[in-house]
Amino acid sequence: MCTLRPFTCKDLFRFNRVNFDPLTENYGTSFYLQYLVNWPEYCTVAESPSGQIMGYILGKSEGQAEEWHGHVTTLTVSPQFRRLGIAHTLMNQLEKISE
Hints:
The structure is a single chain. This protein is of the alpha+beta class. It contains three helices and four strands. It has helices at 16-19, 29-38, 86-98; strands at residues 3-6, 43-47, 53-64, 67-77. The chain has a four-stranded antiparallel sheet with strand order 1-2-3-4, sandwiched between helices. Strand 2 and strand 3 (53-64) form a beta hairpin. The longest helix is centred in the C-terminal third of the chain and has 13 residues, at 86-98. The chain is globular and about 40 Å long.
């Protein structure tokens, strides 16, 4: 079971356990801050009942005129929480926001 909530600047100090996984692409702090400033509604964290970050998704909106769509930039789930449907839940959240 997880709770979805907005990704915040404070999470940059808490998500190392997720990012140290070799399958996760890592970016500089300025990259994450750019997404939080420009597309905060597209940045979501999945959190355990104990407050541990289980995974997160960062996205943005792209397009021109009437042709806008959501874009997934990064999606990752901590190895210990994989195979529980968390990535699917995060993707559904981004799709809902993108509509």
